[in-house]
Amino acid sequence: MITTDSHRGRVALMVAHCAGMVDLVALPVWVGTLMGHYRFDPQQAGGLATLFLAAAVLASVALAPFFGRLPRRTITVLGFGVAALAFFGASVLQDFAGMAVLHALAGLSAGAALSVTHGTIARSANPHRLFAIVGIALGVFAVAFFAAVPPLLTSLGGTVLFQAFAAVMAVAAVVALLAFPQVDGAQPEVAAPAARPAPLPRAVWFGIVGVACMGLVQAMTFAFLERVGNARGFGTAAVTGVLVTLSFVNLFPAGLAAVLEKRWTARSVLLTGPVLQALLVALIMQSSVFMPYAAAASVFAAVVIFTHTFAFGLLARLEPSGRALAATPATIMVGAAIGPILGGTLVKFFGYGSLALAAAVIAALAVFCFARLPAQAPAAARSALA
């Protein structure tokens, strides 16, 4: 039996996490390609990314409450398989309407697969550690992505991006078919008891909103990280170098979060993360000098990866059935879905500097929510299994 503690099961979860979280890696190149190669304006480019993310949110919200009764491997295989076909279809289109339909279809499919993936991670023996492991895999994926895709975009054009997305989704579907794990302690593909599930604890909802706020700031800023660098005159080569550096930096935050799991309290990390994130946005969007922009951009994604690893572990202990964290795609992407189109609208009408003010306001809301989380999960929650 393949479980979350087996090597094959962990590899499948790592690949699925990388495919489902492709936006966290590729968003600046994604929006930059839609603007630079397809000639969409900031609002349109952000809107297409938002369609993908919003559809992923919808899929996650629909599936998460039924996580215990879902055919998990089947959903993961079909979800990534359909997403691969949708992205391949997007690679042969140029019109906005067709791209919009396929972005939405890809988001629905990948979001369903990612929801099942995160719910499975939440039911593992140590969700914090396993989420850190898949986070490290995402960092490795980011390095490979930025090493390969931007040069191909320059030489072959924007269609390469969607072909690369299609290939990533197809690989994830095949790996899930061969090795997607069963939830520890559960029978494969078997319905859970029909008893009405207990409502989520109030603290979990505050945590969900706080993580969504960080996802909003992440997407709003990250989507235009490449564009603002070019707008400031830093040059394509220098901005691409920053993205490559960012991908290398992203190798470390999840692993560091695993090392510090017992040394730092999750609540302290969660209270600090949004503040640091907002300060980095201010540097990225308002700096007219390359080095401050480069330094802030290089560690920007690392902040949310590190913070979210602690949030995932704490929420898994507060709500151990896996239902809340099966909705992790929705938790992250409900904010991320708003981010590109909100950022594009602000940039279009008020300029890049407006993103710094928006980030400060959203960070304040995130801190308010995280302040209502306990430092540790109550003993009853830690010992309970739904």
Keywords:
77% helix; 17 helices; mainly alpha; Growth Hormone, Chain: A; single chain; 386 residues
Give an overview in words.
The protein is 77% helix and 0% strand. It is mainly α and 386 residues long. The chain has one domain (7-181, 199-383): Growth Hormone, Chain: A (Up-down Bundle). α1 runs antiparallel to α5 (96-122) and α3 (42-63) runs antiparallel to α15 (328-350). The longest helix has 30 residues, at 127-156.
* CATH fold call: Growth Hormone, Chain: A
List how many beta strands DSSP finds.
0
Helix content: over 70%
How are helices and strands ordered from N to C?
A: HHHHHHHHHHHHHHHHH
Number of helices: 17
Oligomeric form of this entry?
single chain
- The CATH superfamily name is MFS general substrate transporter like domains
Q: Which blocks of ≥5 consecutive residues have pLDDT under 50?
A: 185-195, 379-386
Query: Which architecture name does CATH use?
Result: Up-down Bundle
Terminal residue distance: 22 Å
Query: What's the shape?
Result: globular
What secondary-structure arrangement, pairings included, does this model have?
Elements: H1 7-20, H2 22-36, H3 42-63, H4 72-90, H5 96-122, H6 127-156, H7 159-179, H8 202-222, H9 225-231, H10 236-249, H11 253-259, H12 266-286, H13 290-318, H14 323-326, H15 328-350, H16 354-370, H17 379-383
Helix pairs in contact: 1-5, 1-6, 1-7, 2-3, 2-6, 3-5, 3-15, 4-5, 4-7, 6-7, 6-10, 6-11, 6-13, 8-12, 8-13, 8-15, 8-16, 10-13, 11-13, 12-13, 12-16
